[in-house]
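Amidohydrolase family protein
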Amino acid sequence: MNNKKILIKGGTIITQDEKQQIFQQTDLLITGDKITAIGKNMDVDDAETIDASKMIVMPGLIDTHRHVWESILRGTAVDYSLMEYLQHILGTLAPAFRAEDVYTANLIGALEALDNGITTVMDWSHIMNSPAHADGAIKGLKDAGIRAVFGYGTPGTSVWEWFYESSRLHPLDIERVLTEHFSSADQLVTPALAIRGPEYSLFDVAKQDIELARKFGLPISMHVGCGTFADKY
C-alpha cells in the first residue's frame, strides 16, 4: 500500500466541490492517492513538501477530444480549412508516420498535456496504419503516465478510402488490441472506439461500426456537424 505523503503548501486551492470553495494560502496533504487534509500552516515531518505559493492547486483538467499523435505537427495547420486538413494532414503526412513516430508523438503529446495541467485525455487516434502503430500509440500514453481513454480509430493510410463516403469497415485489429493491452479495467489507459460516423462513411458502415463497439462493450466517439459534411443528412 502506498502511504507516501506529499504536502502542497501555501497555494490557492480551487476545490470544484458543490460550493465551489476557494481557499487562499492554504496547504493540502496527499497520502498515497488520496487528499487527506486541507488547512493552514500544516507541518508534516515525513512528507515531501512542495511550495505552491503564488500558484493554483486544483483538480486536473480533462481534455475530451484530442488527436494526440498530431501534437508534433502543432502549428502546421492553424489556418487550414477542414478540407485542407483532410488533404494535407491526413492525406499526405499521416501515411508517412512510422510506428515509432506515433509512439514518440503520443509520448510527447501526453507529457505536454500533463505539463499544462491536463491529467486526463480522450485520444481520438486515427493513425492506426498497422498493428504496430496501435501498439506505439498506446505505449506512448502509458509511458507518459497520463490517464487516457484511447479511442481506437481508422488507419491514416488513405484519407480518400477512409473519410470520403467510405465503404471500409472499422479495422478488426481492435480485438487483438483489447486482449494485449486492456486485460484489466483498473488501469490508467482504457479503450474506446473512435468511429467516423455517417458524415464520413456510408450509413450502413457507421451502423456496423457502432455494432462492433457494442460487441466489445466499448464507449463510442464520433465527429458530428463537421462543416462541409454537416448537411449530408
